[in-house]
Amino acid sequence: MKEDYTIKEITEKTEKASTDFEQVNSELKRKYLIWNIETFNMVVSKVGVNRGSFGTGYPFYALNQDLKGTIPIIEEQIRYNRILVRDGIRIQKSIWKCESCLTRKYSQMPDLKTVCKPCPNMIDELKPRKIMNRLPDLDMWIVCEDGCVSEAEAEMSKLLEKNKMYTSDKNPLSTLEEVAKISEMLKQGERPDIYLPIDAHIIEYSKLKDLIIQVPEELSQAKKEERIPYLPIHPKSYRKQWQYDDEAYNFIYDFLSAFTAFNFTEELQKNLDEARGKISTEYTEEELFAFLLNSATEANFRRFQSIALEEIFKKKISEWKSIRTKKEDDEISL
User: Fold this and answer.
1) How far is the C-alpha of 136 from the C-alpha of 94, rounded, in Å?
2) Single pTM value for the model
3) Which of 104, 163, 118, 129 is nearest to 239 (CA)?
4) How many beta carbons lie within 10 A of that of residue 304, not counting itself?
5) Whole-number Å distance between alpha carbons of 172 and 38
6) DSSP codes of every residue in 65-132
7) What separation in angstroms does the CA of 315 have from each of 216, 265, 320?
8) Mean pLDDT of successive 10-residue segments in the chain (334 residues)?
9) Where are the alpha helices (DSSP H) in the chain?
10) I need a surface site. Which of 18, 98, 145, 318 has the fewest CB within 10 A?
């Protein structure tokens, strides 16, 4: 990157990279995303304590279990990107001081939050983490044996590095350049040969199993008590290093919106199918969609105002229900 970007230049560059990526919804892009996902799954399969993996967020809320389907263009993401440019225009002639700071100090920084968050030299909306959040990445999780998080993170760090899969925190300035390149290549109908940033997480087997089993009961209790359903999931996440983030995720939202399992053990897959079957028969599609919206963050709530995503969600629920019905029929025939 050139030195001394103005606020206007850095926000426009970020907005263009993210919006260009969003507006391409070709089969080439779907295959590119699958290449990223399958490579991650192949990489983590080599972790000795691996017990499966799963994806959440984009593009999993748009694709089915087999990663098939059309990826809709989400206008909310484009609107969200434009807000960044609007914030930049307010002080457009100012230099983005973060650029020179990251160049000079980032090798000594633990991550993008510890130093950048309290920094008084830039408004919050234009700090590196907020800008990086506009860029596409993949949320991928590995399930590890109980008590083996340290072993999993050590092996994963080496394997991801070896296969050139990086988090956006690894080198924020390079990340922006690479995502811009990826977006432009897809726009031109060319397949990129570099990966999207990977937002990698580790969770222990029994913790994930317990969360899955608790979903039906939590939805039932939330409905009775007229509150937002909430199950906290607090994984070890790969930023610049492995760390626990400040806040837990709401597993209910992830479970309903995008949870996509890969290579689960027979036991864990059975737990997942049973939880999905139970809630898909006990609640209507509209009720489950309301649970999803209520458990979403503000940004994800707005994203799911998309008619296309609502239709994809309802189709997914129908598939969950059909799996349960098929299993019941199989049991009766036996």
Assistant:
1) 26
2) 0.92
3) 129
4) 19
5) 24
6) TTS-S-----HHHHHHHHHHHHHHHHTTTSB-HHHHHHHHHGGG-S-TTTTTTT-TTS-GGGSHHHHH
7) 19, 25, 9
8) 78 95 96 98 97 97 91 92 82 83 88 85 89 94 98 97 94 94 98 97 98 98 98 94 91 98 97 97 97 96 95 95 66 53
9) 7-23, 27-44, 75-90, 97-105, 128-132, 149-162, 172-187, 205-225, 251-257, 266-282, 285-295, 298-303, 307-333
10) 318
What secondary structure letter does DSSP report for 2? -
Q: Is 211 helix (H, G, I), strand (E, B) or coil?
A: helix
What count of other Cβ atoms lies within 10 Å of the Cβ of residue 15?
21
Number of other residues whose CB lies within 10 A of the CB of residue 163: 15
CA distance 238 to 142: 11
Of 208, 203, 209, the C-alpha closest to 149 is 203
What are phi and psi for residue 139, nearest 5 degrees? -90, 110
Residue 247's pLDDT is 87
Q: Is the sign of the CA dihedral 78, 84, 87, 89 positive or negative?
A: negative
User: Would you state the pLDDT for residue 142?
Assistant: 98
- Burial letters for 93-106: b for 16+ Cβ neighbours within 10 Å, e otherwise? eeebebbebbeeeb
Look at residue 313 in the predicted model and tell me its pLDDT: 96
